[in-house]
Amino acid sequence: MRGQRTERLVRMASRFLLGPSRQVSLTELAGDFEVSKTVVSDDVEIIDGAFAEEGLGRILVDRGRCGGAHFVPQVREEVRSRWLENLAGILSDPERLLAGGLVYYSDLIFDPRFASSLGFIMASRFSDVKPDVVMTSEVKGIPVALFAAHALGVPLAVCRFRNRPSDGPAVAVHFPTGAGDVRTMYMGTRQLSRGKKVLVVDDYMRGGSTAAGMLLVAREFGAEVAGVGVFIAAAEPRQKAVPQYRSLLTLSQGQGRMNVEVTPAN
Hints:
Domain Phosphoribosyltransferase: 112-240
Oligomer: single chain
Largest sheet: 6 strands, mixed
Keywords: Glycosyltransferase, Transferase
Protein name: Phosphoribosyltransferase
Organism: Aminomonas paucivorans DSM 12260
Radius of gyration: 21 Å
Distance between the termini: 47 Å
CATH architecture of the largest domain: 3-Layer(aba) Sandwich
Pfam family, one: Pribosyltran
């Protein structure tokens, strides 16, 4: 497979991008491209510099006996701000206003162009906690959570609001809503296990009851919650059912009763 260095760099970079957060053996790369490990190491440094210049992340190299490397999503602040400000501008369009002070965003999160970027940003904000699994709830939380799981190189576990025979055995957890009702959430017993580090991802948080329900699910399985990430969090109420979380966007009341504003979260 020996070829021009430019071609080799492109093909190596594609392997890191297609499998983020997953170890790539430098020995295997050297064998595949019929070059020495020294040449491969030099190539990895060039790719790492290019990714860093683009503000997407870094390639971490294990200098141990196995000699592997993996791409870690670390979206630079200015890149993240540019992406989120563009999205906030789209969501602030008055035509997206819904009853109850909500905004319509389903078309965006179910568009892979937006969902992949959001998942990448979410993963970069939690790459330091090194979760074993990403957890979300059906339905609208799935796209962002799935792309975040892909970027982190871990599986996705989905909490459902009704149990299906095709999901197999499940654990049921009851949790209160902000309206005072009690809902039930199900998690398949094969999706999560004791001792796993869980990153909870939700699409929208007003009072935080759904995210709090997922925390109860994690506790029921004996898993450790490594963090809570939210796509859009409402500014009010300030007191949430979840004590700590990181949101990408904030939804707040604008000037007038029929106006809302979406801005990047601090």
